[in-house]
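#lab-general

N.A. 3:47 PM
ok so I finally got the sequence cleaned up, no stray characters, all 238 residues accounted for. can someone with queue access submit it? mine expired

B.Y. 3:52 PM
send it over

N.A. 3:53 PM
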Amino acid sequence: MPLAALSAGLRRAATRRRAASRLAVAGIFALGLGALLVPEVFAPAAADEPGDFEFYVLSLSWSPSYCEAEGSERDRLQCGSGRPFAFVVHGLWPQAARGEGPAFCDAYDEPSRRTVDGVLDIMPSPGLVRHQWRKHGSCSGADPDEFFATVRAARARVAIPPAYRRLDRYMSVRPEAVEAAFVAANPGLKDNGIAVTCDRHRLREVRICLTRDLDFRSCPEVDRRGCRQASVAMPPVR
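B.Y. 4:20 PM
back already:
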C-alpha cells in the first residue's frame, strides 16, 4: 500500500473514532446522568483516544545489549544461538506534542498469528509484538495490519550506519558519535530529532522522531531524555 494512502487511511480512522467518542459522551449526557458525570467519562477517553497524537518515535533496540542485560529473562527467539540480530525495532510510539503519547487504548482486536509472524524479521519476539500493539499500536488509529505495515515502513525509512550493522567485538562508543553517524546516514535527520538511550554500561536504543507521514522531524523533548554517559559499550552481534 502506498505510504500516502496508508497515512490518509489512518487519519480517516482517527476521525471516525473521534466522532464516535463525541456521540457516546453526548448520549450519556442525554440520558440525564448529570453535568458532573460527563467530565469523568470524557476525560480518560480524550487522554487515550486512538489516533490523537502528533508524531511517532521509532525506537531501535541494540539487540546484543538487551540479550546481555536481561540474562535468563531474555527472549529465547531473539537471543538464541544463530540469531545474529543487531538493531531491531522495539516499537513505533505515537507521541503527543508535549510529553508522552497515549497508551493502552481500547481499540480493535489482538493482532493475528499471521500478522505477528509477518514482522518477526524486524521485531524478533512475539511477546514484544503483542505488547507493542496493546500499549502503542492500539492508540495509532489503525487496525493491527495497518499499524504493523506502518512499523515496517518506518523501519525502512531509517538507514543503519555501516559501522553498526554487525559488530564482531565489543565497542566503546560516545552517544553523540552514534547520533552523528545516524544523522550522516539519513539525509534530513537533524541532531535534535534523535536520542540514544543507555543503562549504566551499555547503549540500549536509538530513538528517531518521525511525522505521521514518516518524514524526519525535530523533537527536543525526546532529545533531552537521551543518554548522559560519556561513553557506553555496544556488545557484539553473536
